[in-house]
Amino acid sequence: MAHYENQSDMFKQRAENCKKNGDRLYAQAMEAKERGDKEKYNQYMAQAQTQYKMQKENEAKAKEHAGKTWK
After folding, report:
1. Given a cut of 80, is residue 47 above it in pLDDT?
2. Number of structural domains the chain divides into
3. Using CA atoms, how far apart are residues 1 and 4, in angstroms rounded to an integer?
C-alpha cells in the first residue's frame, strides 16, 4: 500500500481513474454513434456508465474512510 497515503486517498485515486476511463469510453461511444455503428455505441456507452457508477462508489468509500490510516 505504499502508493497511497491512506485508505481515503486510495479510493479517491480509483474514482479519478474511473472518471478518466468513463470519459474516454463516452467519447468512443459518441464517435461510434456518429459513424452509425449502433452496436459499438451501445457497448461503449454501457462500459462508460459502469465506470461512472464505480466512480461514485469509490467517492462514497473515500468519504467513509476519511481519516483512517493503514495501521
Report:
1. yes
2. 1
3. 6
